Amino acid sequence: MTTLQQGTIDTFRGQFGGPVFEPADAGYHEARQIWNAMIDRKPALIAQCHSAEDVVAAVNFGRDQSMLVSVKGGGHNIAGNAVCDDGLMIDLSQMKDVEVDVEKQRAFVGPGCTLADFDAAAQVHGLATPLGINSTTGVAGLTLGGGFGWLSRKFGMTVDNLISADMVTADGRQTRASATENPDLFWGTRGGGGNFGIVTRFEFQLHSVGPDLLSGLMVFPFKQARSVLTQFARFTEIMPDELNVWLVIRHAPPLPFLPESVHGEPIVALAICYAGDPEVGEQLIAPLRSFGDAHGEHVGVQPYANWQQAFDPLLADGARNYWKSHNFVKLTDDVIRVALEYGGKLPSPHCEIFIASIGGETGRVAHDAMAYSSRDANYVMNVHGRWETPEEDEHCRQWARAFFNAAKPYASGGAYINFLSHDEADRVEFAYGPAYKRLVEVKQKYDPENLFRVNQNIRPR
Ligand SMILES: Cc1cc2nc3c(=O)[nH]c(=O)nc-3n(C[C@H](O)[C@H](O)[C@H](O)COP(=O)(O)OP(=O)(O)OC[C@H]3O[C@@H](n4cnc5c(N)ncnc54)[C@H](O)[C@@H]3O)c2cc1C
Q: What are the residues facing 320 on neighbouring strands?
């Protein structure tokens, strides 16, 4: 427990531009809230930043007072790394500026922006960069861990589109990381998960996207899952980069295009997005309909920004969540067999198995070009344990762990650090893969005292 004199806190409050919350203050509980209700941590202080100068002041205060420091962007991290017990939480969630330079196709994005904030500002101009599939996720944490979504096959990982990052390092210095300024810091920041400093502004490359795209869902009965999964595995190996199809096994939500009798029944769904001419996309997705005898589909041309929000209702905050994840080069018969076995015993109506196709442009970057190194990951499987009550904790966690263990022999090296749960500290080095050794060197240079350690931590030498 950090014991701070009230006078010390008051002096800091006087110098800081935003609010500083102590546990008894209005605003404290709202600020410490994060997406995963399994994590209930109580910082001693929350410094809610409004500017890069506030971030400098908070970093200096946390370091000088020897406090445990956590950093909150969008608060979506499954491991709960935005928030710490008894330490200082540096809350960036109010730093939501987005500036778009249409001519140069660049976006300058504040570290409190959600994907929805970024998409909204860029899509006004028919521009976007690859982000994730749940619009309430923070741009900051997603980017720092790698980042992938519907556009990644065409335009790469989110970090592949990062041009520069303005940062505050552990010594309280403001600096910039880019290909030409502190290139080692830039290398580490693109996948090293916030280990080297706090990003106060991201600069991204934008691309022409939509604003209307062909996208939607096809929903099949779970009893046809073998056929759907097997054909999905073959189809996704040869689909063009513009097309992305993900597969989800879960219980059917009450979607209006599904017959009521299907609601709550086990299903396998294909989620589709075509980042090109919708007429071409229609032809390309036609074969998906023969994967089985669908319960229903809802596929059409709609604003990309709307599709980015399509999964939000199923991924709202406040539920209990425990995730396990593997990367795969290929969905072999063994992977399919295990997915079918555990898909057949989902322990809660909210649990799901998500298989994201990446590949395409994400695999064309050299594995050592930056800290994100899993360039052979054509598929990222997320065993998404999700439920409502503490009584279900053990049962649901056991299911996720058993599935993860059964699939492990078929997984490739590395893992997506943004999908690691709070109890996977022993998997961090494996997750960073071949990048880990160099990451330790960068950490030693920029954060030798490991001030930034409430993350998927890279320990300095
Ligand atoms: C429902 C849901 C859907 C998701 N879908 C996808 C997806 O489609 N694709 C994908 O790639 N990922 C996805 N993710 C994973 C997501 O990328 C991670 O949860 C990510 O950590 C979220 O970032 P955040 O800013 O919201 O999180 P936070 O919890 O705020 O932060 C995450 C980590 O980053 C650090 N951090 C945050 N901001 C900064 C900063 N400015 N500077 C330095 N460090 C910082 C934090 O300290 C923490 O360690 C999803 C997550 C959820 C919960």
A: 387
Tell me how crowded residue 387 is: count the other CB atoms within 10 A of its CB: 23
Cα angle 368-371-374, degrees, rounded to a multiple of 5: 70
pLDDT at res. 2 = 58
| Arithmetic mean of pLDDT, 102-116 | 98
> What pLDDT is stored for residue 3 in this prediction?
78
Per the DSSP assignment, residues forming a β-bridge with 89 are 46, 70
What spacing in Å lies between the alpha carbon of 193 and ligand 1's midpoint?
9
Ligand 1 centroid – CA 95 distance (Å): 15
Residue 61, classed as helix, strand or coil, is helix
109, 139, 144: which to mutate for ligand 1, most atoms within 8 A of CB? Answer: 144
This prediction has a pTM of 0.97
- CA-wise closest residue to 431 among 324, 354, 332: 324
Helix (H, G, I), strand (E, B) or coil at 93: coil
Q: Decide if pLDDT at 60 tops 80.
A: yes
Instruction: Tell whether the model's pLDDT for residue 154 goes beyond 90.
Output: yes
pLDDT above 90: residue 368: yes
Best of 117, 418, 452, 458 for a ligand 1 pocket test (most atoms within 8 Å of beta carbon): 418
> How far is Cα 160 from Cα 369, in angstroms, rounded to an integer?
10
Does the CB atom of residue 75 touch ligand 1 within 6 A? yes
Give pLDDT, residue 413.
Answer: 87
